[in-house]
Structures are given as C-alpha cells and as structure tokens.
Amino acid sequence: MDKLRTRFGELFGEEVSAQRYFCPGRVNLIGEHIDYLGGLVMPAAISLGITALILPTKSSKVRIHSTDFNETIAFNLDSLPTVKQKYWSDFILGVLLHLKQQEIELGGCDILIDSNLPKGSGLSSSAALEVLCYFMFHSVFAGTEPDRTQMALDCQQIENEFVGLNCGIMDQFAVANGKENHAIVLNCNSLEHEFVPLELGEHSLLIINSNKPRTLAESAYNQRRKECDEALKIISSHRQVKNLIEATLDDLKLISDPTLKKRTRHAITEQLRVQDSATALQFGDLIAFGKLMNKSHASLRDDYEVSCPELDFIVEELKSNPACLGARMTGAGFGGCCIALVDGSSIQRITQSLSETYKIQFKISPSFYGCKPSCGVHRIT
Ligand code: ADP
Ligand code: MG
C-alpha cells in the first residue's frame, strides 16, 4: 500500500478503488518573452508534477484535500459558488463550473491532491492543477479523455477569466501535450507545434530556484509589451509586418531609439535561437543547444533587460563549471528560476557549491530540482 492511498483512506474511508492521475509541471527551455510577439517557445513538460487520487461517491459533494495546504475543501454540485473564493481551490472550482456548463454530468467524489512541484516559482503548478482536474473529471464523469488542445484552451480561459490571472497558452498546452524525452516547439498564436527529441543521455535538466520574489516582473512585462508595440509601429510604417517577430536584423536600422532597438534585437535573435535549438536537438547536439541557452540568457540580460543580479549570478557560476553545457533564466524574469543542462553525475557537486556561493552573496539559499522531459497529463494504472 502506498502512502498516498493510506492517506486517502484516513481522510475519506474507502481507498481501494480510487483512480490515480498525474499532471506534470513545465519549464520553458528557450524562447523567452517572445510568445506574445508571435514567436516560438520551446517548453517541455517535466517529471515533477501533481498527483491526484479520485473516488466517485454517491453524494453530490466534491471533497478535495491538498497535502500542500493540509486542508480539505468541499463543494456541493447543486450549489457551486459562481464567483472565485480567492482560495487555492478556485482553479478547481473554475474547472467544475466550466465542465458543468459543457453539460458534462458531474457526480460527487473525494479527491486527494499531492504535489512535488513548487508553487509560485514559474513551473506552472496552477496550470498543472487546472489541467489535472479537467482531465480527471472529464475521464471519470464523461467516460472519455478530453481533446487535449481544447482542454488547454479551456483551462487558460478559466485561469484568465475565472481566477483572474493573466497567462498565455504555453503553460496549459505544455502540461496537456508533453511527450517523454521531447520538447515542444510551439507557436502560441496559431498553436502550430512540433515535437523535437530531447535525449539527455548522461545529462540532466537542473532547475535552480533563485527564491527571489518576482516583484518587478509584472510592471516590467507591461512596459516591455508597450515598447515592442512601439517598435512594431515604427517598422510597419516602412513595410508590412503583423508581429514584431517578423522583423529582421536589417530592420534594426529603422529604429533610432536605443531601448526599442535592443528589445527588437532580442525578439529577432531569440526566435533564431529557438529555430537553431530545434535543429541542434534534431541532431542530438546538446553542446550546441547549451551554447544557445547561454546566448539566450545574455540577450535577456542585456537587450531585453529582464534578468536580475541573482539570476545572473546563478548563470555565471554554472557556466564556469565544465559539467554545465548551458544555463539561462527561464520565465518572466526578475527572480524565479534558471534552467541548466548539466552532467548528471556532477549534480551534487554543482548544487553544493552553488548553494554556498549564492548564500554568501545574497543571504538566501537557492532550491534545486532535477527533472526529465515527460509526458502530459495521464491516468496512472
Ligand atoms: P505557478 O503556476 O508559477 O506555480 P501560480 O501563482 O500561477 O504559480 O499558481 C500557484 C497557485 O496554484 C497556488 O497559490 C495554489 O492556489 C495553486 N496550487 C498549486 N499547487 C497546488 C497544490 N498542490 N494544492 C493546492 N493548490 C495548488
Ligand atoms: Mg501559474
């Protein structure tokens, strides 16, 4: 008997026939801050994620316990609140309301949620929770798996409109559609995508959480979007371009403002790095991919200016270690996480040394998570 099942039994009584589901988190490997410019991103679903046990009951109650919060929340399906409660369960409530609207006949159930994905660190625990619950409710109560892309779109809408958090489609798409040992090259506008092999061999993906709160991220994000709009206006007054990503290095001479020039240069070069990364990975060339990760970080630091001393320090320390093929900040920036490609046998030495130097410099400790590219949400039998 595993621990989770035992806990389910303690909380809800019977546990034997509870079904188990898992949804991964995700990390963006390269293609940062260009999703909203019409560019390509390259996320991968990761082996860290959220697990749920679910058992349908004969009542009209949905009871959900989260081990992270050590708390049980209950909803009555006949009288679901129609506005958010400003609580962790909002993501689940939003999914229940959405599926009810789709006329899926929901029934009572008991659910235990357990996670090894850090919350609020940019690894998309919110998308994992929404997609997990959507997939699980659909499978249990409609008797079929949902269409994964529609599910991602619905969950994004729930997060945007019901929970009220602004997010693009990348997170939900990646955790819904991930493929083991693959990254996804995704156009967030058209949802066109392809999978590229990410065979790591003796290497590992190492995620380093700076544990610096991303307080500046939101205002800077709005500022960058404004700057990119201005740059697009300038270029499109000379020739027809719909998205900034269609600009070329040649177009840079049309922009005289140095800040707008830098923002545009990041967009153009980052898009090229995503394309080059896809090619490198098709050939299994992790060394070339690592170099592109390093360049992506430099561009985010110098041209897009969304890094911070903590992220720069982590990347520089890692780059100086021969066991690291490449490292970059990942996510919105101004804190949050870095992603690195490292020799698996050196992880312990790398994390120990980085912990020590980072703590001396910033008086806080980083956290580390090793992970592999994994498949999207699924039932575990
Ligand atoms: P991120 O998606 O980057 O992890 P967010 O702030 O978007 O950060 O989402 C974090 C929120 O998702 C948490 O505050 C909580 O409401 C919800 N959440 C994530 N994981 C869990 C969990 N295991 N149990 C309950 N709620 C969770
Ligand atoms: Mg989130």
Question: How would you sum up this structure, described in words?
Answer:
With 381 residues, this protein is of the alpha+beta class. It folds into two domains: 3-198 and 375-380, Ribosomal Protein S5, domain 2 (2-Layer Sandwich); 203-371, Alpha-Beta Plaits. The protein has ten helices and twelve strands. It has helices at 3-12, 90-101, 125-142, 148-163, 170-177, 217-236, 258-282, 286-302, 309-319, 347-362; strands at 19-30, 40-56, 61-66, 71-76, 109-115, 182-187, 193-197, 203-209, 324-330, 337-343, 367-371, 378-380. The strands form two sheets. Strands 1, 2, 3, 4, 5, 6, 7 and 12 form an eight-stranded mixed beta sheet that branches. The protein has a four-stranded antiparallel beta sheet with strand order 9-10-8-11. Strand 3 (61-66) and strand 4 (71-76) form a beta hairpin. Helix 2 (90-101) packs parallel to helix 3 (125-142), helix 3 (125-142) packs across helix 5 and helix 7 runs antiparallel to helix 8 (286-302). It is globular. The two termini are 14 Å apart. The mean pLDDT is 96.
Structural class: alpha+beta
Main CATH class of the largest domain: Alpha Beta
Under CATH, the topology of the largest domain can be stated as Ribosomal Protein S5, domain 2
Share of residues in helices:
40-55%
- Report how far apart the termini are: 14 Å
Mean pLDDT: 96
Query: In percent terms, what proportion of residues is strand?
Result: 15-25%
Rounded Rg? 22 Å
Give unreliable regions as ranges. none
